[in-house]
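Forwarding these from the shared drive since the link keeps breaking.
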Amino acid sequence: MVLTGGIGSGKSEVARALAARGAHVVDADVLARRVVEPGTPGLAAVIAEFGPEVVAPDGSLDRAALADLVFGQADRLAALEAIIHPRVEALAAEELAAGGDAPVLVYEVPLLRPEDTIPPFPSEATVEGVPVVVVDAPDELRRERLLARGLPDHQVTARMASQPSRAEWRARADRVLDNAGDLDALERQVDDLWGWLTAPTAPVSRPG
C-alpha cells in the first residue's frame, strides 16, 4: 500500500503504528535524505543545479537553505524533484523487495498528486490498483503541528501551498484516516486499516 497525506497530517505516526503490527515500511523521506548524503551523485547534482549556498559547513546538504530556494517556486521545486525522485524510487524498489516476508508492504510518500503514478513495487507484490491510504487533518491543525516542531512560519505556508488541497488528497484515496483527534482515535483507525489490509480478500498481494 501507499501511505501519504499532507505535511503535518500525521502519516509518520500511522507508519510507526503499522510497523508495530508487522508491516514492512519504506519511508521516501528517509530515502530522499540518503540520496543526497555527502559524496553522493545526488548531492553533486543538487549543488550543480542550485549552487554552493545549499552546502552546510560540514559538507552536508543545508536543507533550510534549499527549502528557501524551492518552496513557493514551482520551477525550482520541479528541478529538485527531477533530481531526487528517480533516485528515491530506485532505492524504494530495492527496499520494498527486501520486505517480501512481511504481511503488508507500506511505501510512505510525502506527496502523491493526481498525475503521479503509483511507485514501483516488487513484481511479486504488484496488484492492479495498489491501495492508497491518505492521512487527513484540518489545515489549521497541521499548521499548529508544524510550528510546534520549530518550522518557520514562512516555510510552513510555502510547503502547505505547494501541496494539493485536502479535497485532492481525499479524491485519490482508497481509505482515509482522520487524524484530527487524539492518538487513541488514530490507533483505532489503524486497527481497522490493518484488518482491511490483512483480510483474505485484501487489496494488496503478499508473496506466496
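-- next protein --
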Amino acid sequence: MAKTLFDISASEEAIDSQHCRLIMEVGQHIFSYAVLNGNKQVLRMRVHELEVANNQELMSALEEIVAEDEVLKEKMKESVVIYNFPESHLVPEKFFNINITAGLIDMMHGDLNKGVILSEKIAGCGQYNVFRVPSDIHGLFQRHFTRGKYWHYYSLWMECRQKQNGLRDEYLSVIFYPRRILVAVVRDKEIQLFQSFEYEVAEDVAYYLLNLCTQFGLNPETILLKMSGMIDESSTLFNEILKYFGQTEMESFSPAVALPALEEFPSHFFSPLLKLATCVS
C-alpha cells in the first residue's frame, strides 16, 4: 500500500519534459521523485510512504505508482533512479574485483534476499560501492525508464559531501524517514559507517545514535549531529534526541532550487533528495 505524504507543484501548467530531469529515490518503504528544469530548479515533487512487508508487496506498490502517475509517463530529457536499499558495502579500489561482488554481499548481508548485484566507482575517494537491488524492482525501472541512470544513495551522498566546504572533521549525519533512519558516521574527515536502522519509538533512535558514539569514541555532548528528512522539531523524537546531543543542526537546501510551494514546509524535510538531485552528474 502506498500513501502520498507530499504532492507539490510549481504551477498547474504542464511540464516541458523535454528539458527536464526526473530524479527518483526508491527504498524499502519510500518512493519519492523530483522534476528539475535545466537550471536545477524543482518543478514538481511527490513523496510516497510504502507500507509493505516484503519485496513482493513493494513491487506491487511501485508498479501501481508508476502505472498511474502521469508525471512518470512523461518522456524526460533524463531519468535517474537512486536506490536506497541497505545491502551495500564499500570496497577500496585496490581490492575491488567484479567477479567477487555477489559473494561479498552474501557474506556481509546474507543470501536470504535475492537480487541483482550492481557496483559503481565513487568519484574522488578511491572506493567502489557494491550493492544489491531486488531483481524485479530493477527490471521495473529499466522497462519504464529505458535510458535511465542508476545510482546508490550512499555513493551520491559521499560525492555530494566531497563538494561541500567547511565540514567538520567529526560529525554524525542522520536522515529521517517514516519508521527508519539512515546514519553516516564521519571521523577524521573520513566516512566510517553508513547504516540503516528501523525504529518504533523515539527512544530507539536515541539508543542507536548513542551506541554509535560509543563504538567510534565520540562524545554526544560535543559531536555535531546533522539532521534532515522527516523529523518535526516539535516532536517527541526531536526532544528525545536533544536530551543527549549538545550540538545539533538541521540541514537545508539551496533556495535557488526550491519551489515557492515548499516554503510552507520545514526546509530540512526535502533536503536529502534535493541535495542528491543537484549532485547527479
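The chain has a mean pLDDT of 90. DSSP finds eight helices and 14 strands in the chain.

- D.
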